[in-house]
Design a protein that fits this description.
The complex is a heterodimer of chains A (221) and B (493). In chain A, helix 1 packs antiparallel against helix 2, helix 2 runs antiparallel to helix 3 and helix 6 runs antiparallel to helix 7. The longest helix of chain A has 29 residues. Chain A has one domain. Chain A is an all-alpha fold. In chain A, 77% of the residues lie in helices and 0% in strands. Chain A contains 7 helices and no strands. Chain B is mostly helical. Classes of the chains: A mainly alpha (221), B mainly alpha (493). At the A-B interface, helix 4, helix 5, helix 6 and helix 7 of A face helix 5, helix 6, helix 8 and helix 9 of B.
Chain lengths: 221, 493
């Protein structure tokens, strides 16, 4: 089956846009476990986008990366995070540095910024995935912002994972995927990073009896 | 020679695995001594092999040119003395009952993995695999910084994790952008990520994509290198990590992160021209020196003092590369190796002081020269070197960098020298108060075994530092000539 390139490009863009949408949903969400669910959903969208690119370009190794995304990011990591949340009993409302309406406005501005930055090099890209690089950068910036705007250690972790999703979208869509060994290495690193952050959150809870990172203030000039 | 390269990288990995099954302190000491000897032996073969512009390659994966061999030299030498020092330091903690034999074994496992990841990163010929290896070193460092499990160590570790994970993610985005630019020239294949190929086609790559990539990579790896304003994790991590780890962070990891930035610079310059990367590095360099000099004046904690001094010296290297030209580049590279030796010596000495007094407060430490002559002497000498006094190599490199900067922009040279004067005064004032005078506290007497290891590592570092300060050995100049060529093939084009 051959799909017309324009339709293919529309499909990829649509899926990338869904990824971006889930970012906004994460920002707008107050309940921690719902944030984790949204992250899992975003990872599924990411896998669909990757599979779509693999199908349209015939780059079969991207299928493997898509499958790994589903297993690691949509299944294993959310489960670890949920276990941490349950143990720490932090399902209550999130502590915010910046309230939700202004957060959403900032994120809107970040999306515009991302499109502005990538404008000069977008023309370099393949027809199929033209706008995905801008969307990927927008997701990275929003993940960045999530880490700054939320106080709880777990939400900072979600921010970090959102950044990773953005990077993966960038690599898959804009460059038709890195070589397989690189993708595998990146997955391994993300998994280990997730585990180490998990260990740290446990220790934070044990030592400070809280995962509120604003309590970490002993070290300063 | 290729075998030596593989041996150099595999030795720490093997030793990391063996560390987990060691049953006693004695067997661990034997294992790590053998490991250190293997590192030094294989490194010297690799360095001689890569001298004079030759390259060592293993398949498509590993490639060691002069710059890679230069990193290997630092990583293996300071890595080896650091291992010996760690045997003394952690052995002391073990004998005092501060940690169990199991955690002692784990410490060496993490430390060796850390060394493995860094050696791998310095020799990989692939920009994305290098990212993976650097991320690996970040992960193992995260475990090491929090090793003592105190509240403050946890805080320092958390800051490090958050900042450097974000940083490294941005560096990956930069890497993707490089690939995005290179696949148009080289096609969607493995070679489009190889340093050697990227270097070959550098002038054909899309300049805008590379400019964007460079910005992301400077912010990303710059966070790991402790460049201001992304340096905030660095003093905390250096102060709270076990001291052998502080030495390795300062002397090795910062240089590795710089290495990644410099490699990319050698690709970006031919495509964009030095007018783009130069001012960025110069600006960040001067900002780092200024920040560090200010904070050094108000420090009360001697490990934090040396940590800020590292930020200063990373800034000096950046000014050297930012000013460019053969003189600036040579100065920057020479500064890297001398700083690596001097700073690890300073941390080794600081660690002995910490073991003796049990606190890091400078007020309580006086008369080191009388109480602990070797440690006090080493601290004094390394401070004089770090402050940039002759006959040490840092004096030579700072003069070279100032000259290089003067040729480009006289005001940069004046600012640079002014800031260095402040940093000089701050460091010398603070350290002299510790080493001179009468001892105040008796402290805890240390075991002869620990003292022996510390003495060997301190003496080895001091001798190496003195040697290359006075006379440039042949194997080193064989590396410097091809290295300066890597960075200056561009300025004529």
């Amino acid at each position: 089956m051959v799909i017309h390139p324009d339709i293919g490009s529309q499909l990829v863009n649509f899926c990338s846009a869904l990824l971006l949408l889930t970012c906004f949903a994460i920002i707008a969400q107050r309940r921690l476990s719902a944030c984790v669910d949204l992250f899992a959903l975003q990872s599924v969208f990411l896998a669909v986008t990757a599979a779509l690119v693999a199908f349209l370009t015939g780059a079969h190794h991207i299928y493997i990366a898509a499958a790994l995304t589903v297993v690691i990011k949509a299944m294993i990591l959310p489960r670890i995070l949920k276990a941490v949340i349950e143990r720490l009993n932090v399902t209550r409302e999130l502590v915010l540095n910046i309230n939700i309406p202004s957060s959403l406005l900032v994120c809107g501005a970040l999306v515009i910024l991302a499109f502005y930055i990538t404008q000069p090099i977008i023309s370099l890209g393949f027809l199929l995935t033209k706008d995905s690089l801008a969307i990927a950068l927008a997701i990275v910036l929003i993940g960045f912002f999530t880490m700054i705007a939320r106080k709880k250690a777990v939400t900072q972790v979600i921010g970090f994972l959102v950044i990773e999703n953005g990077l993966f979208l960038g690599a898959t869509a804009a460059a038709y995927g890195m070589p397989l060994i690189v993708e595998l290495g990146v997955f391994f690193d993300v998994l280990v990073a997730g585990l180490i952050i998990g260990i740290y959150t446990h220790r934070l809870q044990d030592t400070f009896d809280s995962v509120d990172t604003t309590k970490l203030t002993a070290l300063k000039e | 020679m290729n075998l030596a390269l593989i041996g150099l990288i595999a030795a720490p990995l093997l030793s990391a695995l063996l560390s987990l099954v060691m049953k006693s302190q004695g067997s661990m000491e034997r294992l790590q001594c053998v490991h250190a000897a293997v590192l030094l032996g294989t490194m010297s073969v690799v360095v001689t092999g890569a001298g004079g512009g030759a390259e060592l390659t293993v398949g498509n994966f590993l490639r060691t040119d002069a710059l890679g061999a230069f990193l290997d030299l630092m990583l293996a030498f300071v890595g080896a003395t650091g291992l010996l020092y760690a045997l003394g330091y952690m052995g002391e903690e073990l004998i005092r009952g501060h940690l169990s034999l199991r955690r002692y074994g784990r410490f060496f496992c993490f430390l060796n993995l850390y060394l493995f990841a860094m050696l791998l990163a310095a020799n990989l010929d692939n920009i994305a695999l290098m990212w993976i290896a650097i991320e690996g070193s970040t992960l193992s460092a995260a475990l090491l910084i929090n090793f003592e499990r105190t509240k403050t160590a946890l805080e320092a570790g958390w800051k490090y994790i958050i900042l450097s994970f974000v940083g490294i993610a941005l560096a990956l985005f930069g890497t993707v952008l490089v690939y995005y630019a290179s696949e148009h020239v080289l096609g969607v294949r493995w070679e489009a990520l190889q340093w050697s190929e990227l270097h070959r086609v550098a002038s054909d790559l899309n300049p805008t994509a590379l400019e964007l990539a460079f910005v992301f990579i400077v912010i990303g790896y710059g966070t790991k290198a402790g460049i201001a304003p992304m340096h905030t994790w660095l003093p905390d991590a250096h102060a709270e990590a076990p001291t052998p780890v502080s030495a390795m962070l300062s002397a090795l990891m910062l240089n590795l992160a710089l290495y990644a930035i410099l490699r990319l610079k050698s690709i970006v310059d031919p495509a964009v021209g030095t007018d783009f990367t130069g001012p960025i590095l110069l600006g960040l360099g001067l900002l780092s020196i200024a920040t560090a000099a200010t904070f050094m004046l108000i420090q009360r904690d001697y490990k934090r003092l040396f940590a800020y001094s590292s930020i200063e010296h990373i800034g000096i290297v950046l000014v050297g590369f930012g000013a460019g030209g053969p003189v600036g580049v040579f100065g920057g590279l020479f500064h890297m190796i001398n700083h690596s030796l001097a700073k690890s010596t300073a941390f080794y000495a600081a660690g002995r002081v910490l073991l003796r007094y049990g606190h890091k407060n400078m007020e309580g430490v006086t008369g080191l020269l009388r109480q602990m002559p070797l440690v006090g002497g080493a601290m004094l000498l390394s401070t004089l070197a770090l402050a940039g006094l002759p006959p040490f190599g840092l004096f030579v490199s700072e003069i070279l960098i100032a000259t290089g900067a003067y040729v480009e922009q006289p005001w940069v040279a004046y600012t640079f020298l002014g800031l260095l004067a402040v940093a000089f005064a701050a460091l010398v004032y603070q350290v002299f108060r510790m080493v001179l005078g009468e001892p105040k506290e008796a402290g805890i007497i240390m075991t002869p075994g620990g003292n022996r290891f510390a003495a060997v590592s301190l003496m080895a570092n001091l001798m190496a530092m003195g040697y290359i300060g006075i006379h440039m050995p042949g194997f080193l100049s064989d590396l410097f000539i091809p290295m300066t060529r890597i960075f200056n093939s561009v300025s004529h084009g």
